[in-house]
Amino acid sequence: MKKLLIFSLILVTTLSNAKGKTDLERYHLKGAVKSFTEEICPEMKEKFGEMEKIKCDEEKKRYSFDKQGRLHKIETLDKNNQVKETIIAKYIYQGDKLIAKEMRNSSGKITEKTTIKDGLEVEKIHFNNKGEIEKKLQYEYDKNGHLNKTTAFDANNKIVWMTRNENKELKKGREVKTKFYDENGDLEDTTLSIYDEDNLFHEEYGIKKNGKRKLRMTTSYDYDDKANWVKSVQLSKIWGDLLTERKIEYYDM
Description:
Layout: H1 2-17, H2 23-26, E1 33-41, E2 43-47, E3 50-55, E4 60-65, E5 71-77, E6 83-94, E7 97-105, E8 110-117, E9 120-127, E10 133-141, E11 147-153, E12 159-170, E13 173-182, E14 187-195, E15 201-207, E16 213-223, E17 229-235, E18 242-250
Antiparallel strand pairs: 1-4, 1-18, 2-3, 4-5, 5-6, 6-7, 7-8, 8-9, 9-10, 10-11, 11-12, 12-13, 13-14, 14-15, 15-16, 16-17, 17-18
């Protein structure tokens, strides 16, 4: 079950990011966004028809962008909003084409490297504190830029899991059927995920061998006046409930 939870969370994030050509789009942001601070709350309650947070993680993340929509840095904040850690983004170009992005900590050590082709992320390598490869993810896409395969490798370049996706366009959005395979190539799970026209995740169903499906998770959103989401509520008896809030700062244009 823990492995499937990891699969599910990675899949939702990656599928949502697949079509984004800029970092802002990958984070589902529009307009002149300067930064957003994200707070994740695993405990919430309903009050007058609205979900309110009860207990949140002690740490928050602040993501800052330049005026071209590129991620500039990620800061980890403590409960007093003081910066605990800073990760800086470095972009690598071949001519005028972006081919890679590196994330480095305040000491200059690399923590993550992403290879980019035609605006799509095709490989992401995570490094440990010693600068050694910890894990690697490789992505493949269909002709519409939707993710159709993800392969995860360990530090020894051995496959630890894989997902294969079937994307189907809807009138408003799309649905994605995903099969999860373990390190031996055995099928572990099959899901159906629903995304809206902005590529935001909304529903996940588990699919049984007989083809019947059962709702596992829903996510709803509240938006600001710039059409960016500032609050999401995930409800799931399997993965757990989660409330996420974003405080967005915009450039003066």
